[in-house]
């Protein structure tokens, strides 16, 4: 409770105001004085609101409300709503063309919706300076369009500037340099800090991009198909790294886009399933990622299994004719 009890007692003090017509007057001046009046007074209503835990709840990290997006008369997104709170890890699933990339662009303050409301870190798109907001969101994109042969250290530091390349004449502070070194080491890349991007394996690049995303100390990280191009071993190492975020950065929220259930980390808490720009299912991961919902999203009978914290999917067995 943030308010002191003295303040609450002031709010709960008996109110004096005109009584309902059906009640007898209790004072010579024609006004009702009763210690139970406060139940009806604005002061009591304020006190009740302040004692409600929701009154002190942290605003959502990400909030989309009835969002629609049209491009050249084509409706790409159709009335999508979902909310991400601190510490939640969402998966965004759906076939090609479902609208996942467009929604992720809203989440990263890159694209404005045609209608509806998008709030990122409590700021509504259209009412905030986008470049500053983007620097507060971590991004992991395996198709990182880097052109210069930057070192691992330099790439991680670009997470502070929100740029792909190192800005001209920009230099990190000592504290920023130390933080980058700590992130690099924590992701098992201590011996690679001076290695250049073009000599890194795909798995190492994935971990570098996660370190880059964490450099700005974000409250939200967006992962756009982070397992793209990885072999099984590299994929599993990357997913283990993502899972570790729940321990090293417990308040950070994330949204991960993928086509494949096998690419979901075990730390996934919620899921949003899309098809043709509409929500098929949304909610906790175990409730949303089911055979029924996945089959509906991908327009094909899919058997979904959840085992030891991970999901897997395969085509459902069809009954043979005559059996």
Protein described:
The chain is of the alpha/beta class and 323 residues long. The chain has three domains: 16-55, no CATH class; 58-136 and 220-227 and 252-323, Rossmann fold (3-Layer(aba) Sandwich), CATH 3.40.50; 143-217, no CATH class. Helices cover 29% and strands 24% of the residues. It has helices at residues 5-11, 42-51, 100-107, 130-134, 152-161, 174-186, 202-214, 232-248, 285-288, 291-298, and strands at 16-17, 32-33, 62-71, 74-84, 89-93, 115-120, 123-124, 137-140, 220-224, 253-258, 270-275, 278-284, 302-307, 310-315. A hairpin with a 2-residue loop joins strand 6 and strand 7. Helix 5 (152-161) packs across helix 6 and helix 5 (152-161) runs parallel beside helix 7. Mean pLDDT is 85; it is low at 1-20 and 22-40.
Core attributes:
single chain; 323 residues; alpha/beta; Rossmann fold; 3 domains; 6-stranded mixed β-sheet; 4-stranded antiparallel β-sheet; 10 helices; disordered N terminus
Largest sheet: 6 strands, mixed
Work out the number of β strands: 14
Task: Compute the average pLDDT.
Answer: 85
Alpha plus pi helix count: 10
Layout of secondary structure:
Elements: H1 5-11, E1 16-17, E2 32-33, H2 42-51, E3 62-71, E4 74-84, E5 89-93, H3 100-107, E6 115-120, E7 123-124, H4 130-134, E8 137-140, H5 152-161, H6 174-186, H7 202-214, E9 220-224, H8 232-248, E10 253-258, E11 270-275, E12 278-284, H9 285-288, H10 291-298, E13 302-307, E14 310-315
Parallel strand pairs: 5-10, 5-11, 8-9, 9-10
Antiparallel strand pairs: 1-2, 3-4, 3-6, 6-7, 11-12, 13-14
Helix pairs in contact: 5-6, 5-7, 7-8
